[in-house]
């Protein structure tokens, strides 16, 4: 058993708008994650400043540096190739790491393992790039985890959901500063369903900044439409028109000041949604932003302002309002789930923006029958979930190591051992189909004089064979053979994984209760060992079917010619008209009747084994079949077993 005593697990939720960190020890599977403090707070604004004397400053402290030469906020994105993005992220992460050491919250000599969150919509290549960016000269032992998994782990461990509820399906909605991610967690595996890339809560604070200046402009011009500022503020607290124009020029020339004002707007927005009932008429007071010691910027936020912003069309949202864009995205997710036949059992809201009350209202409007749950501190739930996930990840490292060894060393061999059996069965099914559905009906058509010559019969058989092989009947036969074969392969894979599960006291049903079962879906096959989604492997099997059919078609003339499909017929009638003329002659009807249905059945029965042998030889002799089949099946099974092993982390702890 591995010694976990000196291992510290740190969940690092580096968000576009806010950042939070939590930690647990690996040697105790029961402890609740504790927050690591940045500037004595559990969560910090994702901000970084360069100060000529104090150097790099982060979070709230960065916002309080009026003499900063650089001030950046909300810089997490997918722009991995941009030098400025890489610089900001690395400097921010390095500053947090150094702050944790300087404040003795972690020790550089300890075994610190960092688990960093990323949106569930990021591709695997993006995740790997992000990991490399943060690992190089930044964090030791860094692992990137999808935030939906962290949310799921936290929900399970903190009692928001029971394991029984999670075995069903949960729609995780993560509302961040820049995006809203929708992730379906079904049977404890996460499947991205849809992503609202441009729907982030930061749009609201940007509009608060615009509305604040707009309301003051209207006041000075005597045409107030939203607020009567004279009833709320003193006249000297309201900017003059010339001051508003000067301030807008400053924002354009020096984004540092605009960023500061947007942060002040964010604080006002958060304060409003924390205590919404108190601010329907009253202006939220989160202090003023002093711009160049000349302008005093006070964000204007109350119920009227927020409702106006949430209801107005926004260019960034294709002229939809924030409310309507969120509702439309959620409705789109619902329709996609209905299309694939999935009804979520509950909704989990995460992200600090999930505190906005209207979000839960819209969720319950669109999914009227579903409970909508949210952690009491959603701004910390991802960091805590990452720490919990990391602890299980470390404690199950041995389990995953053995799973990976099995996948790398044994799986390809298992698949390879079964390929000859598959090709034999496949050749038999294709021979049966070609004889019963192509050759017999064609010979009967010739006997009934619908086909004139035996030469035409040969051409007819070849053309019909091509059409049959590329049609649904052959497709179904190949698919059925493939699925039956996969079941046999899976049985041996299951035996291997079961032995590993027993070693780690993992419930065997994690792998073995899932079986391949087509049910009534003869034209579809399941996607993985979990076998819930019927779409992905259908494409995968379609690829293999096309591969097999392509090989058979390429050798079809050889198969039919050397099997001698019409040779027995030639032998029957050559006696009457001469062998040299038989294939090109319009043979009289009375001679054709010498080939009755019974004789055609006998000929077909005799020729099936020869046809099967030729098909099987063609498949075996083609060098691509065995290699491509083995590689494709191995990759599919490896992905499936890895997915199941990942889900097992929720059960082993």
Structure, described:
Belongs to the heat shock protein 70 family. The chain crosses the membrane at residues 534-553, 559-578. Keywords: Membrane, Stress response, Transmembrane, Transmembrane helix. With 653 residues, this protein is α/β, with parallel strands linked by helices. 55% of the residues lie in helices and 13% in strands. The strands form 4 sheets. Strands 1, 2, 3, 4, 8 and 9 form a 6-stranded mixed beta sheet that branches. Helix 14 (411-447) packs antiparallel against helix 15. The longest helix is centred in the middle third of the chain and has 37 residues, at 411-447. It is elongated.
Q: What distance separates the N and C termini?
A: 14 Å
> What is the global morphology?
elongated
Instruction: Specify Rg, calculated over alpha carbons.
Output: 34 Å
For the secondary structure, the number of strands is 16
- Give the strand content: 5-15%
In DSSP terms (H or I, runs of 4 or more residues), the helix count works out at 23
Instruction: Catalogue the unreliable spans.
Output: 509-537
Structural class: alpha/beta
The helix fraction, in percent, is 40-55%
Oligomer: single chain
Q: Main β-sheet: number of strands, strand sense, barrel status?
A: 6 strands, mixed
Mean pLDDT: 79
Keyword list:
653 residues, alpha/beta, six-stranded mixed sheet, five-stranded mixed sheet, 23 helices
Quick structural gist:
InterPro entries: ATPase_NBD, Heat_shock_70_CS. This protein is an alpha/beta fold and 653 residues long. The chain has 23 helices and 16 strands.
